[in-house]
Amino acid sequence: MLDYAHNAAGLKALANLVEKMDGYPKVGIIAGVGDRRDEDTIELGAIAAGMFDEIIIRQDRNLRGREEDELIALLETGIDRVDPNKPRKVIRLEKDAIVHAIENVKKGSLIIVSSDVVPDALNLVMKYKEDEADKLYGFNKEDIPNIVV
């Protein structure tokens, strides 16, 4: 699932939906936004800790005046307030975080990506889906007219 949730209200709304969805573990890919107050970024981490079984912290392309390590620390502060033992990993680039999540997915998992550039993330996920169809059903690129190359 891809969404642009980048503030507490957006992530809470997404949490209400994700709570009703099947899938375990629920893996969330999140990022802090640099032009927010510290407490806003900490709250994002706390919300994520309550809604995901595993968290991957990534960075937006535009850090909006903050340092990467500062945003990561704030998110981890929020995560630790809810569950200091919450499994988490820092993978700074969104593409690398998505690839990691997909390539390490457990059967039955639900991956939720909070993306800052949804079209790029969607293209990456669609490429994986098409590659999966190739493997499962023996399709080739000529069989799929809208393939993302």
Description:
The chain has helices at 8-19, 38-51, 68-82, 94-103, 118-137, and strands at residues 2-3, 26-30, 54-57, 88-90, 110-114. The mean pLDDT is 89. It folds into 2 domains: 2-116, Protein-Tyrosine Phosphatase, Chain A (Alpha-Beta Complex); 117-149, no CATH class. Helix 1 (8-19) packs parallel to helix 2. The protein is α/β, with parallel strands linked by helices.
SSE inventory with pairings:
Elements: E1 2-3, H1 8-19, E2 26-30, H2 38-51, E3 54-57, H3 68-82, E4 88-90, H4 94-103, E5 110-114, H5 118-137
Parallel strand pairs: 1-5, 2-3, 2-5, 3-4
Helix pairs in contact: 1-2, 2-3, 4-5
Features:
5-stranded parallel beta sheet, alpha/beta, Protein-Tyrosine Phosphatase, Chain A, globular
Q: Tell me the helix content.
A: 40-55%
Number of helices: 5
Question: Spatial order of the strands in the main sheet?
Answer: 1-5-2-3-4
CATH homologous superfamily grouping of the largest domain: Mur ligase, C-terminal domain
Number of strands: 5
- The coarse silhouette is globular
Given as residue ranges, the uncertain stretches (5+ residues, pLDDT < 50) are: none
Largest pleated sheet: 5 strands, parallel
Determine the N-to-C terminus distance: 21 Å
Range of strand content: 5-15%
